[in-house]
């Protein structure tokens, strides 16, 4: 398929810049892939569509404060550094993006925080904006991470300033495995109360980890989607999740992927018999139509921006033409889009 096929006009006022006061008060469009029936609900109504023994698979990645602001030695030029991934814990090596990149060269030192609490040296160029930094920090690793936590800012992908509420709201309530630079937004609609109600109904919640990267938001620059290369993201699918999912499959129960990241992770590790297997490694899987899914019976996802790879995965799951109709209805009904927006249940 072509990139231009995923272009549509999205009114800017439909991009949600702030979350709902209560997580599960978001709207939920329920979509039946077979009948193409569409219903309008609140997210908390999702409990009515699943039964005892069905399994929800969630992504427990935790977003860390990946955006640092500092200055360059000698010139004092202001520099933004976006931490992508830790390369070596012992030597404090990180892959980062820098802005403005043209001012940052190998050998430069960068300073962060009051009294230069954190110093980094540029040791390599990776891409036009990419650099490898070595943080010059002599204390214990725990102190180093605490310094990053104190100086870093939540990497919110919205065109507004970060506010204090974003620190908690730009996370799922079950986030625990730190390493993502973007939140798995479909999971942010779940409140503790809703999860408890679902569990009391017999719904089984299982976790995996996909540390979401900036590739989820990077613009696709090729018209032929088969030529697009996704950034690699770390994936961990534990044995207990595998056993629970495969047991549910064999019992003819529903498997629900909470978000495109979960779908991508599960599709990375599938057996010939269309069961899940344990996995610890990396994935650069890029899913777009046409694609045959192996495990999930339902997908929970947000309404995404034009030309985004998350929109493409949703189109592969529910049919490209049908998704176009869904998005037209969403715009007409003023559903909220993107990070803090409303949700779809595609079943």
Question: Describe it for me?
Answer:
There is one protein chain. By secondary structure, this protein is an alpha/beta fold. It has 7 helices and 17 strands. Helix 6 packs across helix 7.
Write the layout of secondary structure elements.
Layout: E1 27-31, E2 38-42, E3 55-59, E4 61-63, E5 67-72, E6 78-88, E7 93-99, E8 109-112, E9 118-125, E10 130-135, H1 141-151, H2 166-169, E11 177-180, H3 192-200, E12 204-210, E13 233-237, H4 239-250, E14 255-258, H5 260-268, E15 279-283, E16 298-302, H6 309-318, H7 320-332, E17 343-346
Average pLDDT, rounded to a whole number, is 94
> Percent range for helical residues?
10-25%
Order of helices and strands: EEEEEEEEEEHHEHEEHEHEEHHE
CATH class of the largest domain: Alpha Beta
Low-confidence stretches: none
In angstroms, what separates the terminal alpha carbons? 23 Å
Please state the overall shape, judged from the principal axes of the Cα atoms: globular
Count the beta strands: 17
Output the structural class.
Answer: alpha/beta
CATH homology group of the largest domain: QueA-like
CATH architectural label of the largest domain: 3-Layer(aba) Sandwich
The value of Rg in angstroms is 21 Å
Number of helices: 7
Largest sheet: 9 strands, mixed
Number of domains: 2
Trace the largest sheet across and list its strands. 2-1-17-16-14-3-12-13-15
Instruction: Please state roughly what percent of the residues sit in beta strands, choosing from under 5%, 5-15%, 15-25%, 25-35%, 35-45% or over 45%.
Output: 25-35%
Determine the CATH topology of the largest domain: QueA-like
